[in-house]
Specification:
By secondary structure, this protein is mainly α. The chain has three helices and no strands.
């Protein structure tokens, strides 16, 4: 059985794929985290910003 990712995650992945060259060449680690990874992990239900 194949499951699909929630719409939020699908949209993030699509945006990432469309901008992959920018992430590889023009974005630093902090920009990548803020623009993609933070949103991705939040969409997965991960709250890694609380102590």
């Amino acid at each position: 059985m194949k499951t699909t990712a929630p719409a939020t995650i699908q949209k993030l992945v699509e945006t990432f794929e469309q901008n992959l060259n920018d992430y590889r060449t023009h974005k630093n680690e902090t920009e990548l985290r803020r623009e993609f990874l933070d949103k991705f992990f939040t969409a997965l239900g991960w709250d890694g910003w609380r102590d």
